Structures are given as structure tokens and as C-alpha cells.
């Protein structure tokens, strides 16, 4: 009698929803991947709907917003950055939903309607973060309404308001005439009402003065982060007062201070900054005396930004960095006196460094790159844009640094194939690489990149006129974003991208004159998750391809078409029904 083979036990996949949620979170690093999972089954659709907490609304998705708000009932973060529709009616719609929002981004708006803010605030009492940056005609009255409507705000961004034609403006919805930009009066109201305020960005508000900082630091006892870049009437005295009177202050970002000299009060204020960890003094006059005062303060510094600062010497910088071994991020962009030997000396104190910006340091060569990758075991991100990379000899032996994930080497004209081969051999786990305007690199160099760095997800090769075609070695390239603006990339290269890079999400081909609709079709057909494509100034791409792309690739959410494209009424309906934004760049 023949032996009957025992069947393996059936695997029980009827897991609790909590288990599926954990599995999805572990497998997927972004909510955009939920879309494919939601198509597997109704059960997965329900779970992914519950997991979605963030939604960005565009003009094209507006008609579907009521349905989306009902579908994603656990949304906590809504974004309307660059939205051009009727924001007031949208805010009223959100207010009527049962959502319990915590964060709202309404930046880049032409105007903020007071009624919409008020109605939303009446229903969203738990809103903690509000981004109103780059809003046209932002005024004190808006700050009054924000302060009254969202009393539990912890984070507020009102940076860089747009006030074009400020003295001939068309008028305000309150008084009938434009009442002017944000002043100390509006900031004072914020400081009086927002008792939970932790973070505020006032950058670019040209008419606020020291009074604003004094009000905030005196009344907002929980304040931890403040940014006041490009505020012409903010002086060192107010910054010193803020540092001295905000015991919980962890982050401060200012610029263009120290002219004509650094005040004693400003230098001494750091003695009171017991928890200050992130310091940004970009574009300022920073003397050795100021650096010495920071050394003497014994701050718990984690991030230091001295980008494009001047007035200090290498001795002052060496003393500072020898004191703060715990720095994880440092930016000394544009500090032109720095040499390879200087970086070699400083690197002894970079044991915990994860990010460094040395852009515009024109004396730094290949030697600095090898020094950093050898001496900084935790280094994750290196920016050496517009330096002197390509110059200098290569070491006979080098140390592989698997921690480095991001390299910005753009605008280094002397960078060669030989150099880039060495760099990618040292950094095999690269995920982000910017080689824009590195004219010395050819197809040979790019083929080595794909061969060595199988983890590449974001590649920028803008303005490579000599690059036309290249091979992608890996069958399962993880490339998600390719920017090749103004390059010589042709249809053959695009066919290779479509064949090898099935995970591609964003493709920027603006100004690629060697590309035709043939190459574009190869990408669109093969990259099933493609969400954005830019064909602006692609003069040899037929404009008739736009409607074909929308129909062929349902995942597309944004298309910037070739110049001259004017959609018909039927095409507009098509784009709307597919939720795809077809717009000018």
C-alpha cells in the first residue's frame, strides 16, 4: 500500500487588522504604496483607508474631495500647497467633516479668507500645526483670526508672505482697502493667545521689529523653535533677549546679523541657552570672539549652520569644533578659506557627524572626500557642490563607507569617470546622487553608478548635453526619481529606464531635445507606478501624447506637457475623471 503524502497545514491569513497594519507599515515606507495594496481585496482596502493619515489636495482632486474625506476617516494632515481653487469653500467643507485634524498646510495661496479660517477653527479645536507660508497679502487681521480660531496651535509658519505691489494693492476683505503687511501688532496677538506655541517661523516679514521677539519670548513659555531670517528690523538685542528669556529654546535660525560688529549682549546670551541644540547663523558676520562665547557656553549643540558666514578664522572654527564632538550636522558652505588640510584636522572631531555641507568651498579637492568617508563612520549625507572635486590624486587604498546615502556633487566640471568610479565604490549604498552639470562624466561613468549602487532611488543628471544613452545593469533598479533637465538623454536611454526602472515615480525631462514621444511611451508603458512627468520644452515630443498618457497610465497625478499644448473641453473632462493635473510648469 503506497504511503499517502500528508498535505502541509493551511496558513491562516485571517489575521487581526492590527497585525495587517503592522505588516503594511513594515513593508511600505510611504502611503503612496497603499494604492496598489488597496486593489488586492476589500479587506485590504478597508485597512489601507484606515492607515492613510496624510492627504495633499490639488485642483484636479477637488471634485472628489467629499468622497475622499469620507473614505479616509483617520486623516490628520491635510495639504493645499499651491492649490488654486476656492479655498474658503474647501475649508468650510473640511470643517463639516468628522475629521480631527492636527496639521494643515495652506501655503502658497493668493489670499486667506477669514471666514474659512474661522469656520474651520470652530470645528477643528485640536489643530496643532498650521502652515501659511508664502501667502499673498498676509495681514495682522489674519493673525488675529488664527489666534482666536486655533487656540491649541503648537506650530505656526507665516514666513515669506507675498506682498507684490504693496502700495497699490486691490484691497482687504475687512476694510475694503489694503491695510498693510504683518506687524508687531499681529505677532503680539499671537503671543497673547497661543499659550501652547512651541515653534514659529516669522522669516521674511519685513515690518516686524524687536517687539515681536520680545512678546513671543516673554509670553510663550513653551517656545522651543524660532526662525527670523530676512527680517530687516530685528536686531541682535532682540535675538539676545529671546535666547536669554526662553529657557526651553532648542532651535534658533537668523541671518545677516553681526553688522557692523557683534554686540556683547548677543555673545553673552549663549550663557543662558541651557538646551540650545540647533543654531543657524547663515550669511552673518561671525567673529572668533562669538565662536569663543559659544564654546564657553557649553551648549548641547547638535546642528550648526555657518553657511556663507565670514569674519572668523580657521583657528576660531577649530576651537569650536574641538569642543562640540556631538555635532550630527554642520554646514560651512561658502567658507572659502577652507583647505583639504583644514578638513583633515577638523575631521578628528566628526565621529558623530551624519551630514556635512561644504558647497562653494572652492579649495576642496578629492582629498577632502576621501578624508570624510574614511574618518566619519556615521556620515550619511555629503554636499560638495561647486567645489574643486576632480582635482588631486587618489589614495592607493580607501575605506568603504556603507553609511553614506546621499551625495550632492553638482557643478564640479573637473569630475571625471575615474573620480566617480572611486566615489561610488566607496559609497555602495547610495540612494540619492546629484551630478548635475558635471560635464566630465560620460555614459561610462553612469553605467558604473548603476552597476555599483543598486540602492539608487533619486538621480539628478541635469544639463548633461553630452549624455545621450546609458545602460542600467540591474534588472530590478530601485530608481524612483530621475531628473534629466536640459540633458542629451534620447529615446534609447528612456527605453532602458522604462525596461529596468519599473519603480520610477517621478521623471523630469524638461528641455530634453533628443526625446520624442517614442521614448516617452516606453517609460509610461513600463513604469506602472509613474506619478509625475515633466515634458516642458521637449520640442520634439508630439503634444497628442498627453491624453494617451493619462489613459494608459492611471497612476499619473501630474503632467507638465510640451509647450503649445492647449487641452480641449473633452480632454479636460478626461483629466479630471482620472484625477490627473495637467498644468504648466
Number of alpha- plus pi-helical segments: 21
- Provide the helix percentage: 25-40%
State which percent range the strand residues make up: 5-15%
What integer value in Å does the Rg equal?
Answer: 27 Å
Shape, per Cα inertia axes: globular
Query: What is the residue-averaged pLDDT?
Result: 88
- Give a short account of the largest sheet: 21 strands, parallel
Going by helix content, strand content and strand pairing, the class is alpha/beta
How many DSSP E strands? 21
In terms of per-residue confidence, which ranges show pLDDT below 50 for 5 or more consecutive residues? 8-12, 166-178
Distance separating the two termini: 76 Å
What does this entry show, briefly?
The chain has 585 residues and is α/β, with parallel strands linked by helices.
What does this structure look like?
- There is one protein chain.
- The chain is of the alpha/beta class and 585 residues long.
- The chain contains 21 helices and 21 strands.
- Strand 15, helix 17 and strand 16 form a beta-alpha-beta unit.
- Residues 8-12 and 166-178 have low confidence and may be disordered.
